Amino acid sequence: MSDDVDLGIDDEGSDRAESGSKKKKISGLGALLPNLLKFAAIGLGALVFIVTVSIITYNLMSRGGKSQTALAEPASPYVGKRPEYQMFTSIGSVRTRTKDATPYSVVVNMVIGYDMNDKNAQTELTSRLYELRDFVRVFFSGKYAAELQPENEARLKQEILEAINTRYLDTSRARIILFEQLDRMEM
Fold first, then answer.
1. Rounded to an integer, what distance in angstroms lies between the CA atom of residue 165 and that of residue 172?
2. pLDDT tens digits, residue range 70-97?
3. Kind of pairing, strands 93-97 and 104-115?
4. What is the largest CA-CA distance in the chain?
5. What digits encode the pLDDT tens for the residues 125-146?
6. Domain spans in the chain, listed from the N-terminal domain onward
7. Exposure string (b/e) for 10-38, b if CB count within 10 Å is 16 or more?
8. Residue 99: φ, ψ to 5°
9. Among 74, 134, 135, 168, which is least packed by CB within 10 angstroms?
């Protein structure tokens, strides 16, 4: 009898176990969906966070329009095409003296470059030839010998370019000033 009792108990217990496992299987599938949604929400939240941080960082770095650090660019093997200019060479050699206490003699032969497609520049420069010669003479006679050193040539060229464009040329523009000769000699 004890065997029958044991069998009956086991049968009831197995029924309970089967119904419990069915409940566990159903509850396992039900528990899987919230876990999947939880991981999807975490992934989506991480993606939104990363995109937000990236956008804020980019905006902070490019706030001034250019990078905050100025890096020296390496010498590029490709140098862009330099512009070509027509040259006005009619000024010729101009001789003058500096304004030093013991004046130096200065001999200047200057060339003015202008755009290739500027048809009026040659005419305008030619019509102002005597004014340009006088300008060169007055410009260099107003300088000290120390200002006429070779390391100051770029500054001198810029000053001359600005003066010619503002005072002497109306419709055309000088683009470059070149010195064929710029000699400073002690007298």
1. 8
2. 555 666 666 678 889 999 999 999 999 9
3. antiparallel
4. 144
5. 999 999 999 999 999 999 999 9
6. 1-71, 85-186
7. eeeeeeeeeeeeeeeeeeeeeeeeeeeee
8. -95, 20
9. 74
CATH 3.40.1360.10 fits 85-186, yes or no: no
3-state secondary structure the chain: CHHHHHHHHHHHHHHHHHHHHHHHHHHHHHHHHHHHHHHHHHHHHHHHHHHHHHHHHHHHHCCCCCCCCCCCCCCCCCCCCCCCEEEECCCCEEEEECCCCCCEEEEEEEEEEEECCCHHHHHHHHHCHHHHHHHHHHHHHCCCHHHHCHHHHHHHHHHHHHHHHHHHCCCCCEEEEEEEEEEEEEC
Q: Angle at which helices 129-141 and 119-127 pack, to 10 degrees?
A: 70
